[in-house]
Amino acid sequence: MHRTVHDIEVDAPAGVVYGLIADPVQWPLLFPPNVHVDRLAHDGTHEHLRMWATANGQVKTWTSRRVLDAGNRRIEFRQDAAAPPLSEMTGTWEVEPLGGDRCRLTLLHDFRVSGDSPEDIAWVERATDANSRAELDSLARIAGGWALMDQLVMTFEDTVRVEAPPERVYAFLERADRWPVLLPHVARLDLTEDPALPGVQLLAMDTLTADGSSHTTESVRVCFPEEGRIVYKQTRPPALMSAHTGAWTVAGDAHGSTVTSRHGVVLRPDAVTRVLGPTADLAAARRYVRDALGRNSTVTMTHAKRDAEAAARAAAARAAEPAVRAA
């Protein structure tokens, strides 16, 4: 069994920090390596999670069980389906009050690797060290602005109604490699998929903004075709954001489909005036981000609507041809 220990002092109350680590669904907004977390079960003390994260530049997925002890501000976790080369991974989050609005956050990992290969041990140690430092540094930065957290973190969504089956809408969203020729705000998009991780896509995209400028983003997407859902995390977000996550969901009913785009954002307060001008404040940044992301998402959904409805009309016309010839 191998162990790593990482800790950091945080300029925030212990209760605030514990609350952040106790809500893993929000981790993709807090922790750079985390792409997506699905909470499979939760009773207030025990929870079962499915997680996707990057490690040494690779996307990994696993399931984990956690035991939450709010009274002692302590969370224990164990991966019950560890990602190779790991054969076992357990650990603990601990939050220790230091007096005033300060605390110490400690993250412990204990792990084994299959065959105890030195190369694999070194790989896990590098990944654990890099990810733990990135997670603790990010959490300390965000929690350190806890008085402004309601202004820095924002979530919103937009919805479009489609008169076509959900499968056609979902196909448009999943086949992002076609977007440069279908969407006016996408100038370039490179998409790669790992055969070892079905449904995981890596995207590098150049997006045009309303003023004609372009910015480059990189994202990891996880596709769930059976659920009509695609979730994503920008691993290289625009300068105004420290984190940006999102989800596309397509729900069908007897009359067609409803497609929804949801965004989660953490703003960078130190970038507001640099990006938006010397008189801009957080309120202006929130309006700018809401407008820019919402506009691009709505454009994408509108084009998905047109594409799906045109395909549905063409299919209906083909189905009617035998009846016309017979008449």
TrEMBL record:
Entries under InterPro entries matching the protein: Polyketide_cyclase/dehydratase, START-like_dom_sf
Pfam families recorded: Polyketide_cyc2
Key words, A-Z: Plasmid
Domain of life assignment: Bacteria
Official protein name in the record: Cyclase
Protein's organism: Streptomyces globosus
The organism's taxonomic lineage, starting at the top: Bacteria, Bacillati, Actinomycetota, Actinomycetes, Kitasatosporales
